[in-house]
């Protein structure tokens, strides 16, 4: 992947390309299949729900193959509803951690390691996140590891900060890295030249895995349902957003 390019200046249009257009375009191309053959898969998320939205099927498949899945969430998620009259940032962070615990249980993987760094400020936490990833990798010096992280060019500063840390650690340690996009599906257009489509891999979800993923997503009540009728409490994950993240296939760059 071309790691030198930056995409964060691209404005995110959450409606963007329709899901019908994406599915049509994606289905006309032959994507290499993702193959995960390691002892442990470390899955990095910027916010509590990134890993489920972008990689639930991959985590389910890895666990079923006997690979230990280690989910890691860096931020506290407290920034999803600024100005909410219903939940304080501290209350929201607590709720979001509880939601993620429910979701990972549904997926049949271990609870996420939660680090509570500032939501919206991960670009200032590079050293802390790099140290965390290295410390986790150091727990298994004799095992083969791979890292699955949110994409470093996803268009969200927190996502990109996590992706850059993941790339740095993976390069230093010589371990495999894959990165899953989330917001890219909302601002990009099929085939546009600045996206490294040649690096994309695909994972197909079974009917059972897709159903499990969808159930896990319902755990994120604060994100898919309004906290109150107040405008500041409106849902973050609207149906047209979830449509792009609950396909029969998940995609990664790597």
Count of helical segments? 9
Total E-strand runs: 7
Strand content: 15-25%
The CATH architecture would be 3-Layer(aba) Sandwich
**What order do the strands of the largest sheet run in, or round the barrel if closed?**
3-2-1-4-5
Largest sheet: 5 strands, parallel
Specify the CATH homologous superfamily: LmbE-like
State the share of residues found in helices, binned by percent: 25-40%
Classify the fold: give the CATH topology: Rossmann fold
**What's the CATH first level?**
Alpha Beta
Structural overview:
It contains nine helices and seven strands. It is of the alpha/beta class. It has a single domain, classed as 3-Layer(aba) Sandwich (Rossmann fold), CATH 3.40.50. A five-stranded parallel β-sheet has the order 3-2-1-4-5, with helices on both faces. Strands 6-7 form a two-stranded antiparallel ribbon. α2 (50-64) packs antiparallel against α7 and α4 (126-138) packs across α5. The longest helix is centred in the middle third of the chain and has 19 residues, at 89-107. It starts with 18 loop residues before the first helix and ends with a strand.
């Amino acid at each position: 992947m071309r790691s030198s390019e930056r995409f964060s200046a691209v404005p995110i249009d959450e409606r963007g390309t329709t899901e019908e257009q994406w599915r049509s375009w994606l289905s006309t191309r032959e994507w290499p299949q993702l193959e995960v053959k390691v002892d442990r898969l470390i899955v990095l998320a910027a916010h509590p729900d990134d890993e489920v939205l972008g990689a639930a099927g991959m985590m389910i498949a890895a666990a079923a193959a006997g690979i230990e899945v280690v989910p890691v969430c860096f931020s506290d998620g407290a920034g999803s509803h600024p100005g909410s009259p219903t939940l304080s940032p501290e209350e929201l962070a607590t709720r979001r951690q509880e939601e993620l615990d429910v979701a990972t249980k549904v997926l049949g993987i271990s609870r996420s390691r939660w680090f509570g760094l500032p939501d919206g400020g991960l670009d200032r936490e590079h050293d802390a996140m790099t140290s965390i990833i290295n410390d986790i990798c150091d727990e298994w010096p004799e095992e083969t590891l791979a890292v699955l992280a949110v994409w470093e060019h996803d268009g969200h500063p927190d996502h990109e900060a996590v992706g850059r840390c993941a790339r740095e650690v993976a390069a230093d340690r010589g371990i495999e890295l894959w990165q899953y996009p989330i917001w890219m599906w909302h601002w990009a257009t099929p085939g546009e030249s600045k996206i490294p489509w040649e690096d994309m891999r695909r994972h197909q979800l079974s009917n059972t895995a897709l159903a499990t993923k969808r159930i896990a997503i319902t755990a994120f009540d604060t994100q898919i349902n309004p906290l109150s009728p107040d405008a500041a409490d409106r849902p973050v994950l609207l149906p047209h957003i979830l449509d792009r993240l609950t396909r029969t296939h998940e995609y990664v760059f790597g």
